[in-house]
Amino acid sequence: xxxxxxxxxxxxxxxxxxxxxxxxxxxxxxxxxxxxxxxxxxxxxxxxxxxxxxxxxxxxxxxxxxxxxxxxxxxxxxxxxxxxxxxxxxxxxxxxxxxxxxxxxxxxxxxxxxxxxxxxxxxxxxxxxxxxxxxxxxxxxxxxxxxxxxxxxxxxxxxxxxxxxxxxxxxxxxxxxxxxxxxxxxxxxxxxxxxxxxxxxxxxxxxxxxxxxxxxxxxxxxxxxxxxxxxxxxxxxxxxxxxxxxxxxxxxxxxxxxxxxxxxxxxxxxxxxxxxxxxxxxxxxxxxxxxxxxxxxxxxxxxxxxxxxxxxxxxxxxxxxxxxxxxxxxxxxxxxxxxxxxxxxxxxxxxxxxxxxxxxxxxxxxxxxxxxxxxxxxxxxxxxxxxxxxxxxxxxxxxxxxxxxxxxxxxxxxxxxxxxxxxxxxxxxxxxxxxxxxxxxxxxxxxxxxxxxxxxxxxxxxxxxxxxxxxxxxxxxxxxxxxxxxxxxxxxxxxxxxxxxxxxxxxxxxxxxxxxxxxxxxxxxxxxxxxxxxxxxxxxxxx
Length: 543
What we know:
Layout: E1 3-9, H1 13-23, E2 30-33, H2 50-53, E3 62-63, E4 76-77, H3 86-89, E5 93-94, H4 99-107, H5 116-126, E6 127-129, E7 143-145, H6 153-165, E8 180-183, E9 185-186, E10 188-189, E11 192-193, H7 196-201, E12 210-213, E13 217-224, E14 227-235, E15 238-250, H8 253-263, E16 266-267, H9 269-274, E17 281-282, E18 294-302, H10 314-327, E19 339-343, E20 354-359, E21 375-382, E22 390-392, E23 403-405, H11 412-429, E24 438-443, H12 451-461, E25 463-464, E26 494-496, H13 511-526
Parallel strand pairs: 1-2, 1-15, 2-12, 6-7, 15-26, 16-17
Antiparallel strand pairs: 3-4, 5-9, 8-19, 10-11, 13-14, 14-15, 18-21, 18-24, 18-25, 19-20, 20-21, 22-23
Helix pairs in contact: 1-13, 5-13
């Protein structure tokens, strides 16, 4: 029977970071297990390749249960199934959220040690920033962070339009101030995606103390006398038991981590019994507290060929691929959503509560009627939903898809703010600076202005921003799954370390915060700690 010091169940954004940091000590034997395959396909390296992958490639193929507050809409829920996880298939936006997000983890959720001052050093340690070195940024870390390569003119017109509307320009959403509009920083390096697979695992592959296994499904955690001692895995119709002398670390994401715990008999006892699983440890918070960003969008038809819709044609696709391979330029270097920003739907919000993503095309959204000219999309997402959902098991079969219920708009406030964000997006797209580029709004359409009309449009077209968190939340209350040092409550030698431990969803895309959690989690496991920068130990605080 194979034995390791640490077994990491899940090779996504967090798992890859943990594998690198833990195996940096040659005396620590680490096993990383990933249910998906490798990232060999060229699309994984191309920034624009994500548009193909969010529709099925390297995905579990899951969807939500009917959403009762969205007229029973079923939402496709892309969850990565590949080494690097979400960082291998996402739109590569590098956003960290607001300082007040992390301070709320401490004040509202009791997560001591997770304030903004505490987590900032881990954001900085991860970075290899192309341009910035200051209190908020660093270089020399594993993760490539850069600015867009040659954004098209319409993206600059959008930035001007937002300023005309009243949103200030911001050249660094991850710096001293989050508010504003501008170009996003991206997890790219030299025109290629910088996933945690390429940034963290690939450089560590030669370490004799690190074993990486792909296409291996972890079916359960083995618990003996109140201690996690190993995992059972399945591959090619065979089952195998792998043991860990120190700890099992669950890093399977906000959907996968609670699923694995429940398949192992760890979770709400009544639910486990209802699907035929004998409870090993009754922990009611497992699979609860699900939070996600729901996305609404405006689509406009352009006056000319200002976006990338026409590159879907075969000859244009071939040319774009050649341009990328030969010169590292052209549309393939674009993440398609590299411009946007943060603003307010609720004028009394403590910090920006709406995020915009400018999509350089219309075909990115499913079900859009074909237009004569290329289109442009402006997505808006409410960032701090009050609604809470669940992840539950459909059966005891590890191969069965889980029951995913984000419970969108269960709180009427979320609907109110989402629709206000949609109105803001429409107003920005109607500004003078965009008039040379925008012919007309096509969705929701000029005749859709009433609350009822906008609601109906939202029910039919809303989608997830793929930012689920919170389903194994850390904290000190009865529904907390892990303690602030990420140890599972009530069992020994078992931790959870990924987006599922976040008690509150950050006000941003969640890949960078997930990497931060894993960076800090590795130090917690190893008994280390990075100190906050001196400027954040005083009264000077980011807002």
